[in-house]
Amino acid sequence: MTETAGELTDFPRDPTETNLRLYELSWKIALDGKVIIELPSGRILDCNPAAERMAGLPRAAIVGRRVEELLSPEDEPRVLELLGEMSPLPERLRDFRLVRPNGQAFAILVSTSGALTLDDGRVVSVCEFQDLSVQKHQEHRLATKRWALSAYAAAANALSDQHNQSSLLRAICAAIVTEPAYVFAWIGVAEHDAEQTMRVAAEAGPGSGLLEGLRLTWGDNERGQGPASKAIRTGTIQIVPDTRKMQASSPWTDRFIDFGIDSCIAVPFQAEELRGALVVCAENAEAFGQVPVDMFTHLAQQVAHGLIAIQHDHLLKAEREHALAMERRLNEAMLLMIEPMSLAMEMRDPYTAGHQNRVADIAVAIGAEMGWTADRLRGLRIAALIHDIGKMSIPAEILTKPGRLSATERALVSEHCEHGYRVLKGIPFPWPVAAMVLQHHEKLDGSGYPNGLKGETILPETRVLTVADMLEGMSSHRPYRAAHPIEKALEILESEAGTALDAEVVAVCARLCGEGKLTEFLDR
To answer: What are the residue boundaries of the PAS domain, all occurrences included (predicted)?
Structure first.
């Protein structure tokens, strides 16, 4: 086997010219950095363009170096140990840091092919560098949405159960801080005295000492430059994305630091003559993106509506209607968050773009045909829209691989059910969404994964989701196979009805297909 500079001829590949060119193309266009290293020396034999971009060096400056020279000095002992004892099996290793010539360092995930022996006796390994900074940013954005949704759900429930202003405001603050990311919540109300005093109407959370000793005002003076004061005075939302970057002269700066508050938001509200602001403080910087802002804006509006309802002393019937309206708004808010999460996941895998939306439409059509209530169908739709959210933790290179996966890669992909469950289990959905996501690859006969569940231990909603997922998957094109005709997909489903799949669900699915009621979803 020969070695040519810039060409990938140092390791075994498919002998066909077509596959050779495809592999070379995937090497060149890969988003993750790849290097081929000699073992045990660690000398770099080749690298792809993505590795050049990540390292901030041209190929000529990378080839010939030892791989540890690209990494942080603190990583060198681990690298040398890896080079000396690399197994023939692929490995995934975290906590390495790539260092550019300008000193910039960032976290990377390193995957290795394991030790490969070439025809000439040399031993090499293909290493892949995945930039974790983008992934961590995406994870942070998802986390901020999850925090806001969790707090909103708890606060919306509290809103419907209070009968006077003081208890309502206290309940709202207490509900918000049930989400650990929010360390303090308080509500300031404008007094109409000469000093334009701002009264603390309610507060909750471990940071409750934050306001102690402060003479708060909503007037435009030195003491009135905090987020809540500005929100009441201007009627606009005030966001402090990073309290460490506030002016040192601000009386709030030291207090935020002392109480571990890295960001906050103040949302104004008005209930007839009553003007106030809902303030939420977080222990993380940049915790208030667009979705959290929308959530807390909705919540502040509902606080105002709740105060007005109490002021007018509504009858029990009006309170019950308000609670139902709050529930509808909560469901709408959930969908507002769920759809961007679904889109964010599918953007990582262009081959399955639209898959979750189509599965949701098919599943809801089947559930409706089975006579399920609108509320139950709403929960089914939400679960279907994010049933593959766990794939956010799978390397994009595996998700978009234009061929069949290896056993190791299949094992990684099969973990997405559990990853999705861990992301969703802490969100208080009124439906078993996390359980549906965890179970959507389970089969009635115990042949599914991840837990090999059987029979009645699998939720009815999951059985519908599984059939919808299989029908859409088989009817759609994938890089490694053409789409099955609907007739062939139904034949496969019917062959498993009563054993692996729910017979009633398969029968309803087949009937809807026969009537052409699922065609619009599958053709979209």
So the answer is: 41-83
Tens digits of residue pLDDT in 159-183: 666 567 778 888 888 888 888 888 8
Nearest alpha carbon to residue 122 among 9, 35, 4, 10: 10
Q: Give 51-71 as a 3 state SS string.
A: HHHHHCCCHHHHCCCEHHHHE
Alpha-carbon dihedral 240, 243, 248, 249, rounded to 10 degrees:
50
- Select from 135, 158, 133, 418 the least CA-distant residue to 299: 158
* pLDDT the model gives residue 299: 84
Among the listed residues 65, 48, 66, 68, the one whose alpha carbon sits nearest the alpha carbon of residue 130: 48
pLDDT digits (tens, 9 = 90+) for 56-82: 999 999 999 999 999 989 888 888 888
pLDDT digits (tens, 9 = 90+) for 303-361: 887 777 766 654 455 566 766 776 677 666 666 667 666 666 666 665 555 788 899 99
* DSSP structural state of residue 301: H
**Statement: 343-522 belongs to CATH 2.30.40.10:** no
* Residue 302 structure tokens: 């509902």
Q: Which pLDDT score, from 0 to 100, does residue 308 have?
A: 74
The answer, yes or no, to whether the previous bond of 40 is cis (omega within 30 of 0) is: yes
Q: What is the pLDDT of residues 85-101, one digit of tens each?
A: 887 888 877 678 889 99
**Comma-separated ranges of CATH 1.10.3210.10 domains in the chain:** 343-522
Q: Greater confidence, 317 or 198?
A: 198
Q: CA nearest 458: which of 443, 470, 437, 475?
A: 443
- CATH for 162-313 (3.30.450.40, 3.30.70.360, 3.20.20.140, 3.40.50.150): 3.30.450.40
Sign, Cα dihedral of 434, 437, 440, 443: negative
Q: Rounded distance, CA 47 to CA 65, Å? A: 11
**Alpha-helix residue ranges (DSSP H) falling in 178-315:** 227-234, 251-258, 290-311
Q: Which option is the CATH number for 17-133: 3.60.20.10, 3.90.1260.10, 1.10.10.10, 3.30.450.20?
A: 3.30.450.20
- Taking the C-alpha atoms of residue 448 and residue 432, their distance in angstroms, rounded to an integer, is 19
- According to DSSP, the residues that pair with 93 across neighbouring strands are 110
Of 258, 253, 224, 223, nearest to 240 by C-alpha is 253
Distance between CA 184 and CA 186 in Å, rounded?
7
Residue-wise pLDDT for 438-482, tens only, equals 999 999 999 999 999 999 999 999 999 999 999 998 988 766 667
Contact indicator for 334, 429 with CB cutoff of 8 Å? yes
User: Which among 179, 220, 229, 159 is positioned nearest to 200, based on CA atoms?
Assistant: 229
